[in-house]
Amino acid sequence: MSRYVLAGVAVLMVIVAGGFYAGKVYLEAENTRSTTTKVYSSKPAEETTAAKLPPSPVTKNEVKGQPAENVKKSTTGNTRTASTTASLSNVRRGWGIKRNDNHQQPEMPKAIRDTLARYDAYWIGSPGEKVLYLTFDEGYENGYTPKILDILKANNVKAAFFVTGHYVKTQPELVKRMAAEGHIVGNHTMNHPSLPDISDEEIKKELQSVEELFTKLTGKKMKYLRPPKGEYSERTLAVTRQLGYYNIFWSLALVDWVPMPGGPQEAYQSVMDNLHNGAVILLHAVSRDNTEALDRILKDARARGYTFKTLDDLVAKKS
């Protein structure tokens, strides 16, 4: 073989090797880019089958996020669109109530009570009146709301249902029934975000999107808000109040979005053991145990001398 042929073969091998190396570098660069680029889903979590809305969380003895604990600074969504909120704290707080079984109102630090009062937010009624305020959170339908409405109607009890945009879109007939039967339908936001994590303008969009759906469906307005996950800040209280909403927290809640080991009896006992004057009761309508226990709870609470009133009564009483 001539030296010219050998030289040509050598050059060809260099070209092939160089091309392979360049391709390898390109693929590695693409792989690196694909693992470092964030992927944002356009589908809200509550509209996926794998990730239904997380309810407002509680532990066995307390609602998650007792005000004195679990406080952290929000690191995202701090863009402000309203100059009146620019100086307000956006420290995220998780609403928390330590339950007791002595039928006394739960304690709440004065600083928290003062902040809530400043922005017309509510979590409990008068300590001197045996009045209860029944509320339900509705992120998705699990088949129990029709029976809950039947039980409320049979017992002549008016409740409040806090609905997400997903719920209004997928359960329009139930939402219309709630309103038609005299229940309050409150706002639980469009996509269930933690409000301290989003801007003032985004909060406005979250609330108005749900209200527009509800008003188109029923002709009624919304004025009560339950913050998703019970998370709030002074800024979010101010922004939502400026939008005309009263924030409604709670003073009695259960771990009720999963089946209870003791079934309906445990749900019943958990409520009855913790009843207190002015209780704002939070239940989740996805619970079979709550649904099966509800009729007994209503009847036995009345037998103990309690009456059921609405959030309109609560706000009027405190105003």
The CATH topology turns out to be TIM Barrel
Q: Order of helices and strands, N to C?
A: HEEHEHEHHEHEEHEEHEHEH
The 3D shape can be described as globular
Give the class-level CATH name: Alpha Beta
**Main sheet makeup:** 6 strands, parallel
CATH architecture descriptor: Alpha-Beta Barrel
Count of distinct structural domains: 1
Number of DSSP helical runs: 10
Protein name: Delta-lactam-biosynthetic de-N-acetylase
GO molecular function: hydrolase activity, acting on carbon-nitrogen (but not peptide) bonds
Pfam families: Polysacc_deac_1 (PF01522)
GO biological process, one term: carbohydrate metabolic process
Short description, anyone?
Residues 130-309 form the NodB homology domain. With 319 residues, this protein is of the alpha/beta class.
Describe the 3D structure:
The protein is α/β, with parallel strands linked by helices. The chain has one domain (58-318): TIM Barrel. The chain is built from ten helices and eleven strands. The strands form three sheets. Strands 3, 4, 5, 9, 10 and 11 form a six-stranded parallel beta sheet that branches. It is globular and about 50 Å long.
